[in-house]
Design brief:
Number of domains: 1
Helix content: 25-40%
Radius of gyration: 19 Å
Number of strands: 11
Shape: globular
CATH superfamily: Vaccinia Virus protein VP39
Largest sheet: 9 strands, mixed
Strand content: 15-25%
CATH class: Alpha Beta
Order of helices and strands: EHHEHEEHHHHEEHEEEHEHHHE
Distance between the termini: 12 Å
Number of helices: 12
Strand order of the largest sheet: 4-5-3-2-6-7-11-1-10
Structural class: alpha/beta
CATH topology: Rossmann fold
């Protein structure tokens, strides 16, 4: 394993065993995930396996939210500390499967607009009903397929057979501990040299731009000497730019190289070729969530991969 920056190869989707593992937990949680998260997760799992990390080791999932990576890693026997700057509770389909501890530390006045954007349903919506209705109509493309998608999702959410089978018929004795830790990237409430491996799945781009370099320093601070930082984020071809719909930054290779101190020799960043290959991937198109297909106000309007305005990129940095 070496320090590097690389655009994620869409051929990662050929790893059917890992896709099946991801799909299992998505079904158990009845969860829809980001259009490129399969790539992010498979790339990350490959690196964990390449590093030879043993079950029982401690992984920090920086910006874990309620994403599937933390649960998949805990199911593999790792002890996962899931860092996020919002308050979270254990998802209902985690009960009886994962042992989740919650540590809500004081953010000491820290606030970011993305905290309101991604509140995990814990903040009451105080907007007037007519305002919410207009917002819904302006964003959603209402089709018969949309009604099928939403009704199927609601039915599974009412009684989820995948969850019941996992809970009652599978053993969880070898699962690792999972801790929801509240904290920001620029002030992680952990001691120095504590973490065996750090992962971050498409979360770094939601940080404050001016805090990016200090966040990298914080990631490295909590890692043990020689331990890896592996992070996926959003790549831009020419200039750093802010994408309003998902409230996320997109970064050029030069910016990432400067923040992570990685040379051009260790950077693979042929943006045009990678995007062309991604657009032609039938597997990627097949796996795009219905959330995108019927919604224009998101990172992939109406699920059209040819309209993707950024590309997933991975960074490896050894402390």
């Amino acid at each position: 394993m070496k320090n590097r920056i690389e655009l994620l190869n869409v051929d990662l989707l050929n790893q059917s065993d890992l896709l099946a593992e991801i799909d299992h937990w998505l079904k158990v949680f009845n969860w829809q995930q980001g259009w490129h998260y399969d790539l992010d997760m498979i790339w990350t799992i490959n690196l964990i396996e390449e590093y030879g990390l043993k079950p029982g080791a401690t992984i920090l999932d920086a910006g874990g939210g309620l994403g599937m990576t933390q649960f998949l890693l805990a199911a593999r026997g790792y002890n996962v500390i899931s860092l996020d700057f919002n308050t979270r509770i254990g998802p209902k389909y985690s009960k009886g499967i994962f042992n989740i501890g919650i540590e809500n530390t004081d953010l000491e006045g820290y606030h970011h607009e993305y905290m309101d954007f991604m509140d995990y349903g814990l903040t009451p919506n105080t907007k007037p009903f007519i305002s919410r209705l207009n917002n819904f109509i302006n964003k959603i493309k209402i089709t018969p397929e949309y009604f099928y998608f939403t009704m199927k999702n609601k039915l599974v959410n009412f009684i989820n057979p995948y969850y019941l089978i996992e809970k009652w018929f599978n053993s969880h004795d070898t699962f690792g501990e999972l801790t929801f830790l509240r904290g920001s990237f620029n002030k992680i409430p952990l001691s120095d040299n504590k973490i065996d491996f750090l992962v971050s799945i498409s979360a770094f781009e939601h940080n404050k731009y001016e805090d990016m370099p200090s966040s990298v320093d914080e990631f490295l601070r909590v890692l043990k000497p020689g331990a890896p930082l592996t992070l996926t984020t959003s790549a831009a071809e020419k200039n750093d730019w802010y994408f309003e719909a998902p409230q996320a930054w997109n970064f050029t290779k030069e910016t990432l190289q400067s923040w992570f101190f990685i040379s051009n020799n260790n950077t693979s960043f042929n943006y045009a070729d990678a995007l062309k290959k991604m657009i032609s991937s039938d597997m990627l198109k097949k796996r795009i969530s219905g959330f995108y297909k019927y919604n224009k106000n998101n990172a992939l309007p109406y699920g059209k991969i040819e309209d993707a305005s950024y590309y997933p990129v991975g960074i490896v940095k050894i402390k």
